Amino acid sequence: MKHFLLFIALLSSVYSGEFRYSISPITLNIKHQMIKGNSYRQGCPVSLDKLRYIQLSYIGFDQKDHTGELIVHKDVAQDIVDIFAKLYDARYPIHQMRLVSHFQGNDWRSIEADNTSAFNCRNATHSHKFSKHAYGKAIDINPIENPYISRTGNISHKASYRYKNRTLKSPNTPQNRAIITKDSLVYKLFIAHHWSWGGDWHYTKDYQHFQK
């Protein structure tokens, strides 16, 4: 009986954890990490005092609880927490969630790692203008399962080829459940908070991308 109760306690900690989060200003340590990691530099269109560092719970592809980190604009920080709290309750799977500075600010490397991320002081894809990411008002979610597709149909990341078909439903794997469509909870939550989705763009499709 004792072993059975211990098993139930462990099971509860894995499958019914409590969503936790914190929102804080950019500390000196985080600032140094951003600069060293090439995600922030002089000339960025938003000052550090307008950004917030968020730590929050998420369900990984291993179906276990993890703590992720994001940097976003202070005006959208509560949106992000509210949305990801509901995604956590629904057990929506996220591969990983690390600051893009861990990838030296390199969007390609972050995507190859299937990393969910937000702030990055960079230009928009194929543009000389700042991306919404450079303002902290955009997020990319599970980018391998939700690829950027050019107007010619090209996908730059080989692992994303199988997700070009957005109706892929089975088998019931975390990867397939990570796919974002208009029927998905991810889409509905962001739209309810008045964000727009790259999957609605007319020419290119950026299924990982939400912005406000």
Can you walk through the features of this model?
- This protein has 212 residues and is an alpha+beta fold.
- It has one domain.
- Helices cover 25% and strands 17% of the residues.
- The strands form three sheets. The protein has a three-stranded antiparallel beta sheet.
- Strand 2 (51-59) and strand 3 form a beta hairpin.
- The longest helix has 14 residues, at 2-15.
- The termini are far apart.
Instruction: Provide mean pLDDT, rounded.
Output: 91
Q: Largest sheet, described in full?
A: 3 strands, antiparallel
Q: Give the proportion of residues in helices.
A: 25-40%
Strand order of the largest sheet: 1-2-3
Radius of gyration: 18 Å
The percentage of residues in β strands lies in 15-25%
Determine the number of helices (DSSP H or I, runs of at least 4 residues). Answer: 6
**DSSP, total strands:** 8
The CA-CA distance between the termini, in Å, is: 52 Å
Q: Which secondary-structure class do the elements indicate?
A: alpha+beta
- What is the overall silhouette? globular
Number of spatially distinct domains = 1
Order of helix and strand elements from N to C terminus: HEHEEHHEEHHEEE
Unreliable spans: 1-16
